[in-house]
Write a structure and sequence with these properties.
The complex is a heterodimer of chains A (about 110) and B (about 110). Chain A has about 110 residues and is an all-beta fold. Chain A contains no helices and 10 strands. Helices cover about 0% and strands about 45% of the residues of chain A. In chain A, strand 4 and strand 5 form a beta hairpin. In chain B, the strands form 2 sheets. In chain B, strands 2, 4, 5, 9, 10 and 11 form a 6-stranded mixed beta sheet that branches. A 5-stranded antiparallel beta sheet of chain B has the order 1-3-8-7-6, with no helix packed on it. In chain B, strand 7 and strand 8 form a beta hairpin. Classes of the chains: A mainly beta (about 110), B mainly beta (about 110). The interface between A and B is medium-sized, with 21 and 22 residues.
C-alpha cells in the first residue's frame, strides 16, 4: 500500500476483554515500530521489529501485551485482559531500516476501555 | 532513563512571525535528532533531521543543534496558520536504539 495501514481505527471494549490491533507497513520496510500515545501525552515506545524479530520486548508495559510480525509484513499487537489505563492511541510506524530516523506512521488505532 | 524535554506550550505567535521551538536531551552520545509535526487527531510526520552542530535550513524551517549544550531547536519563519500543530523532538536514545520522543510543543499561529 501507499502508506502504513492500521486497523481497527477505533475500538471500544470492556475491561477484561482481549483486543488485537493490526498494522500493515509500507511494502519493503524492514523495520516496524509500535508506540502508544495517551491523550495529551507524548509517544511511548513499546516494541520494534527488524524483519520478523523483536530483539527486546522490555518496552512492553506488562505481560498482558504481546506483539508479533509475520512475513516481514503485517504485525499484530495483542492486549489481554484490557484495563482502563490501556486506553490510548496505538501508533504503528515503519521505516526502510532501523536507525534511519524517518518513521512513517499509520493513523493509529484508538482504544477505549470502559 | 534518557529523556527529551520540551516546553508543552501552547506557544502562540502571530502570522508572519518567527516561531522558536526548543528541546533539550539527556544523552551526550546521541548523534541524530529529528523534528516531527503532529496535527490534531493525526499521526506524526518527519519534517527535519539534523546530525551536525550548527544550522540546517529547509524552506521556512531551520533546525539548530548544539551538542555541547545538548540542545536542539526548530525555527519556523513567516509562520502560517497551517503551521499550527504539535512539534515533537526526537533522538535515538532508547535501549533498543529506538527513537525517544518528547511530549511536544503545541504551536498556534494566529491570523
Amino acid at each position: 500500500g501507499a502508506g502504513v495501514s492500521q486497523s481497527p481505527s477505533n475500538k471500544v471494549t470492556e475491561k477484561g476483554k482481549d483486543v488485537e490491533l493490526r498494522c500493515d507497513p509500507i511494502s519493503g520496510h524492514t523495520a516496524l515500530y509500535w508506540y502508544r500515545q495517551r491523550l495529551g501525552q507524548g509517544l511511548e515506545f513499546l516494541i520494534y521489529f527488524q524483519g520478523n524479530s523483536a530483539p527486546d520486548k522490555s518496552g512492553l508495559p506488562s505481560d498482558r501485551f504481546s506483539a508479533e510480525r509475520t512475513g516481514e509484513s503485517v504485525s499484530t499487537l495483542t492486549i489481554q485482559r484490557t484495563q482502563q489505563e490501556d486506553s490510548a492511541v496505538y501508533l504503528c510506524a515503519s521505516s526502510s531500516g532501523h536507525l534511519t530516523g524517518e518513521l512513517f506512521f499509520g493513523e493509529g488505532s484508538r482504544l477505549t476501555v470502559l | 532513563q534518557k529523556e527529551v524535554e520540551q516546553n508543552s506550550g501552547p506557544l502562540s505567535v502571530p502570522e508572519g512571525a518567527i516561531a522558536s521551538l526548543n528541546c533539550t536531551y539527556s544523552d551526550r552520545v546521541s548523534q541524530s535528532f529529528f523534528w516531527y509535526r503532529q496535527y490534531s487527531g493525526k499521526s506524526p510526520e518527519l519534517i527535519m533531521s539534523i546530525y551536525s552542530n550548527g544550522d540546517k535550513e529547509d524552506g521556512r524551517f531551520t533546525a539548530q543543534l548544539n551538542k555541547a549544550s545538548q540542545y536542539v531547536s526548530l525555527l519556523i519563519r513567516d509562520s502560517q496558520p497551517s503551521d499550527s500543530a504539535t512539534y515533537l523532538c526526537a533522538f535515538y536514545g532508547g535501549s533498543q536504539g529506538n527513537l525517544i520522543f518528547g511530549k511536544g510543543t503545541k504551536l498556534s499561529v494566529k491570523p
